[in-house]
Specification:
- The chain is an alpha/beta fold.
- The protein is about 30% helix and about 25% strand.
- It has nine helices and twelve strands.
- The strands form two sheets. It has an eight-stranded mixed β-sheet with strand order 6-7-8-3-9-10-12-11, with helices on both faces.
- Helix 6 links the parallel strand 7 and strand 8.
- The longest helix has 18 residues.
- The chain starts with 5 loop residues before the first strand and ends in an 8-residue tail after the last strand.
């Protein structure tokens, strides 16, 4: 097996939001939205971030894009730590990482025609004649499954799935190394979801793209992901290949998430493992393992000591005191 060469390397990425009160806006607490997340993504690979709402998935995506500033940690894309770039450096960097948004309705300017939406990044970053930009836009629209003459239509003239295809074409315009997709099919009909997912997979194979795919839908993740990172309360609690995770989840939280996912076969049966209790507040996470308040296997050590994300098998990492060598 050839060595993996990461396109993206994230190390100890942290984001704490201040909670302020009073006229002087005094900081009284911190929301630990992302708390020391580390992973990498290779060219041609899809890493999926999964977990319950509020676990920090979308915040990680925004930190990688530097839409918000990290509190600590590094984000290295193609050898450059983007957390240390100034404004001019970030402008040059942004062409290498693009985003496909969750809402295909809100992510497109309703006043611009499709051709302008796709060529706008080219205007900002490339010295091209207008005819060249239009030809590039027509080619991209055709590649994502739209007609070339769609470039003369406004977003309201497209269906939801077509709008998302338009958003994908815009993301491809600058030939990025990494695409961050934040719940890109959750707003689409189920039949259209499969078409868009297959399109993303085809484009990845064709262009060697790296994907960070954020989703709460395990069915979608199982279809598109190569590796899965399970997040809980700002931390990654398990990182494994798709096949390993779904065949034999090692963290109790991963186990419960997979058990709770619906099975498309009505004749299939499996043991239901519900997660008791509520997600703790990220302003005041419990000591030790953050999941111990809801874990059916918790022991005294779990309540006192924070488990490190350890490699228990090749390519398999788990943050649990009950897994791997003690």
């Amino acid at each position: 097996m050839t060595a993996r060469k990461p396109v993206l390397e994230v190390a100890n990425l942290t984001k704490h939001f201040d909670v302020t009160r009073g006229l002087l806006r005094k900081t009284v607490a911190k929301v630990r939205a992302v708390d020391g997340v580390s992973f990498d993504i290779a060219a041609g690979e899809t890493l999926c971030l999964v977990g319950e709402s509020g676990c920090g998935k979308s915040t990680v995506a925004k930190l990688i894009l530097r839409l918000i500033e990290p509190s600590a940690g590094s984000v290295v894309l193609d050898g450059t730590d983007v957390t240390k770039l100034d404004e001019a450096g970030m402008r040059a960097h942004r062409r290498h990482v693009q985003m496909v948004f969750q809402d295909p309705y809100a992510s497109l300017n309703p006043r611009l025609k499709a051709g302008v939406i796709v060529t706008e990044p080219l205007e900002n970053y490339e010295s091209m004649a207008a005819s060249e930009r239009e030809a590039r836009a027509a080619k991209l629209l055709t590649r994502v499954g739209l007609r070339a003459d769609a470039m003369h239509r406004f977003p309201f003239e497209f269906s939801g799935g077509q709008r998302q295809r338009l958003g994908i074409a815009r993301a491809l315009a600058l030939n990025p190394a990494l695409i961050v997709a934040d719940e890109p099919v959750s707003a689409l009909d189920v039949s259209v979801q499969a078409q868009v997912l297959n399109l993303l997979m085809d484009l990845q194979e064709e262009y060697g793209l790296a994907y960070l795919f954020v989703s709460h839908d395990l069915g979608v993740v199982e279809h598109i992901g190569h590796r899965i990172a399970v997040m809980y309360l700002g931390k990654i609690v398990e990182l494994a290949s798709r096949d390993d995770l779904f065949a034999d989840p090692q963290h109790p939280y991963s186990e419960a998430l997979i058990a709770a996912a619906p099975i498309p076969d009505p004749r299939a049966k499996r043991e239901r493992k519900t997660i008791e209790g509520e997600v703790p507040s990220p302003m005041n996470p419990p000591p030790g393992c953050h999941f111990h308040t809801r874990c059916p296997y918790a022991v005294d050590r779990c309540r006192k000591e924070v488990p490190a994300l350890r490699e228990i098998a090749p390519g398999r990492h788990v943050a649990c005191h009950l897994r791997g060598p003690q």
